[in-house]
Each structure stands twice: as structure tokens, then as C-alpha cells.
Amino acid sequence: MKAIITGGNKGIGLEIAKNLLNRGYEVHVLSRTGIDSPPDGIISWKTDVADYANTIKIVDTIGAANVLINNAGIMNTKTARDYQSAEDILHILNINLITAVRLSVHLAEQMAESGGGRIVSMGSIAGTIGHPDIWYGISKAGLVNAMRSLARTYGPRGVVANTVAPGPVETDMMKSIPEERKSRLKSTTINQRFCTAQEVAETTCWLATDAPAYINGEIIDMNNGMNYR
Ligand SMILES: NC(=O)c1ccc[n+]([C@@H]2O[C@H](COP(=O)([O-])OP(=O)(O)OC[C@H]3O[C@@H](n4cnc5c(N)ncnc54)[C@H](OP(=O)(O)O)[C@@H]3O)[C@@H](O)[C@H]2O)c1
């Protein structure tokens, strides 16, 4: 059993990689900086997912995967007005959304041919709340719709595609958020704490493996009461 994780070399993605390894998967991790000396069973590939041509070449070299986790992502400390050029906008959309959707379609075709497979995308609470980084929020909302579309198109042929939408998680991505804002956000949760990367990984890997296939095109929110749908 083979799994591909974009952005699996640190943070949430690395926890997903370790979880799938423990479940017996051969795990392929795609990131710009890679993993130095990955554990046995985790294979690290270097690519910028914004470069789709190079990324798809790697994915085709890896060969038929049973699981795809679209986890690579960036968030900018920019407001809507700070995005001055189409290039700026396309950069974040390429990383967070466009490559993820193109990879998903590519692998869903293969999965459907071979009887099925599972895709999980890393969404975010940012996809529903109107995030200050407008294009980050849009990219996360787009993933939800893309997974739903794939579920409808490929679900009849055994492909299961879902989204996990966490609230804040203490990873490198959160380093740009001021402590005062983090405390304020934490205070809006039921348990006065952020989600851990391990908790997100557990949920993601459950959807990618043991979850009933009837859960298809869905979103699992993980924000501890910050934002009930
Ligand atoms: N932390 C949160 O509060 C939070 C909440 C909800 C959702 N999320 C989502 O969770 C996912 C993982 O984020 P994280 O919190 O674990 O942050 P992180 O520690 O910054 O990890 C981001 C991952 O994405 C990879 N990545 C970034 N740009 C890339 C590119 N151009 N090409 C290939 N890989 C790239 C990074 O690897 P390299 O830098 O080596 O390329 C890294 O593996 C993201 O999609 C994020 O939006 C995070």
C-alpha cells in the first residue's frame, strides 16, 4: 500500500507520514526542503508543488498510490489589499489549491481504474470564516468543493475524497501570528487550547484508511467549538 503526502516533511504532514507508516504504508513525502535521513518506509522527494510539471513527474515515478494527502500549504501575513499582482495570487493558489486539485484528478483516474483509493485534503477553518489572508481562505474553500466534486465523479468507482478543516495548530505556520491573537483565538475554544498536529493526523489518516467509504465529499471540522457549521 502506497501513500503520497505533499508537504509531509514537518508539522501536520510529518505526523500524517508517521501515522501512515505505522499503519504499514510505504509513504512518499513531497516538499521543497525534504527530510534528512527519513526513517525506513518514508521516501522523501524534493519538489516545489507550484511546479506542476516536476511534481507530476515525481508522482508518476512513484507509481500507483492508494492514498493521496494534499497537505502542502502556505499562509501569508497579508491583507486583501497587499496582493498587488496576479503572480502573487497565483503563487499561493498554485501551492494550496491548483496543484492539489490537478494531482487529485490525475490520481483519482488511476485509483478508479484499479478499483478505488482515498484522497484527503487539508482544508482549514479559514475556508469558512473569511480569513484575513483572503487568498488563503479562498484556497481552502476551493479544496472542499474540489473534494466534493471528485467524490461525485469518481465515488461510483471506489474513490473516497474528503477534507479535514482544522482551526489553529501550533506549527511553523503559526509562528507569524502574534501571541496576543493566538491567546484570543485559544480562549474561543471549548478546552482553551489549540488542536495538535497529531490530532489532525489521526483524523486525516482515519479518513484515508478505516473510515466508512460512505463518508465521501464531506468535511470534518476540528476547531473545538470555535466555529460550528
Ligand atoms: N497550522 C495551522 O494552524 C493550520 C490550520 C489549518 C490548516 N492548516 C494546513 O495544514 C497544512 C500543513 O501546514 P502546517 O501547519 O503543518 O505548516 P508547516 O509546518 O509550515 O508545513 C507546511 C508544509 O507544506 C510544505 N510546503 C509549503 N510550500 C510548499 C511548496 N511550494 N512545495 C512543496 N511543499 C511545500 C512545507 O515543506 P517545505 O517548506 O519543505 O516545502 C511543509 O511540509 C497546510 O495546508 C495548512 O494550510 C494549518
Strand content: 15-25%
The percent range for helix content is 40-55%
Largest sheet: 7 strands, parallel
What's the architecture, going by CATH?
3-Layer(aba) Sandwich
Distance between the termini: 34 Å
User: How large is the radius of gyration?
Assistant: 17 Å
Domain count, please report it: 1
Q: Classify the fold: give the CATH topology.
A: Rossmann fold
The top level CATH class name: Alpha Beta
| SSE ordering | EHEEHEHEHHEHHE
Question: What compounds sit in this structure?
Answer: NADP nicotinamide-adenine-dinucleotide phosphate
- List how many beta strands DSSP finds: 7
Describe the protein's architecture and organization.
This protein starts with a strand and ends in a 7-residue tail after the last strand. α1 packs across α7. The radius of gyration is 17 Å and the shape is globular. A seven-stranded parallel beta sheet has the order 3-2-1-4-5-6-7, sandwiched between helices. Helices cover 42% and strands 17% of the residues. β1, α1 (11-22) and β2 form a beta-alpha-beta unit. 42% of the residues are buried. The mean pLDDT is 97. It has one domain (2-222): 3-Layer(aba) Sandwich (Rossmann fold). It has seven helices and seven strands; from the N terminus they run βαββαβαβααβααβ. By secondary structure, the protein is of the alpha/beta class. Bound molecules: NADP nicotinamide-adenine-dinucleotide phosphate. Residues 6-7, 9-13, 31-33, 48-50, 71-75, 95, 122, 124, 166, 168-169, 171-174 line the site of NADP nicotinamide-adenine-dinucleotide phosphate (NAP).
